Amino acid sequence: MPRSQNKVASHRRRKRILARAKGYWGGRSKVLTVAKHHVDKAESHAYRHRRTKKRTYRTLWNTRINAAARLNGTTYSRLIAGLGKKQIAINRKVLADLAVNHPQAFAEVVKFATA
Question: Mean pLDDT, the chain, as a whole number?
Fold first, then answer.
């Protein structure tokens, strides 16, 4: 009895890996074993960087809030502490958006938090 190799599934698997490696340089996009290693590495970097991106955005928001708070006569830490004492639940993403796009509304928030 001849040996079964399941060509359909193995071909589909190779095709899927090489499709993910499309655009890679040289043998990384053409040789299956090399492409497999680089696709695995790329996916691990993508997973890690999706988490790093969240940290990066939070630092950007903090910087924007601090700059706008200093224009209104206070600092980032005093503003956040004031918001905590007044029990105002407004996140940093929204505060940064207010600071950039609506400076008057941000000034009102600062005035209320520091009063």
Answer: 94
DSSP letter at 25 equals: S
Cα dist. 59→2, 15, 29, 56 in Å? Answer: 63, 41, 36, 5
| pLDDT at position 45 | 96
Q: Is 113 exposed, middle or buried (0-12, 13-18, 19+ CB in 10 A)?
A: buried
Whether the pLDDT of residue 1 is over 80: the answer is no
CB 107 within 8 A of CB 72: yes
- Helix, strand and coil percent figures for the chain, each rounded to 5: 80, 0, 20
pTM: 0.73
User: What CATH architecture is 7-114?
Assistant: Orthogonal Bundle (1.10)
Domain positions in the chain: 7-114
- Enter the DSSP assignment of 39: H
Q: How far apart are alpha carbons 65 and 8 in whole angstroms?
A: 57
Q: What percent of the chain has pLDDT over 90?
A: 89
